[in-house]
Amino acid sequence: TILAGHKTADIVLIIKHLPTLEDLGTIMNTVKDKMNVLQGDKGKNATVQSHESGFIYNYNGYCLNVLVTTLPNNTKETIDPEKHVKLENLKNSLAAIRHA
User: Fold this and answer.
1) Which residues pair with residue 56 across a beta bridge?
2) How many CB atoms lie within 10 A of CB 36?
3) How does residue 1 score in pLDDT terms, banded at 50, 70 and 90?
4) Phi, psi angle pair for 88, to nearest 5°
5) Residue 58: helix, strand or coil by DSSP?
């Protein structure tokens, strides 16, 4: 979408195991820290906002939407709703790949 002139990019991150809410927080903090290092003092103006499927990183009018999911075979495993990302969100994130 950035090549088309839009200031939004979607990234789907596929991990080998069922993603937990803790995984989302760890990934979100890692991306924020790495981006802040790359941008130096300018990165302090960036914001990160979590949602049920991942998070959104905003900086200077640009938006990076990161969706976290797992391999399709792993969606058949038992999901603990208090620990893992909801199955519906995992499937929607996988569908985002096909949409592109």
Assistant:
1) 49, 65
2) 17
3) low
4) -60, -40
5) strand
- Token pair recorded at residue 73: 């075979």
Structure tokens at 82: 């208090």
Parallel/antiparallel/unpaired status of strands 54-59 and 62-70: antiparallel
- How close are the terminal C-alpha atoms of the chain, in Å? 10
| pLDDT at residue number 6 | 82
Buried b (16+ CB within 10 A) or exposed e, 11-34: ebbbeeebbbeebbeebbeebbee
Rounded-to-integer distance, Cα 76 and Cα 30, Å: 28
Contact 59, 30 (CB under 8 A): no
The H-or-E segment that residue 30 falls in is helix 21-39
pLDDT digits (tens, 9 = 90+) for 34-90: 988 888 776 678 899 999 999 999 988 889 999 999 998 888 888 888 899 999 999
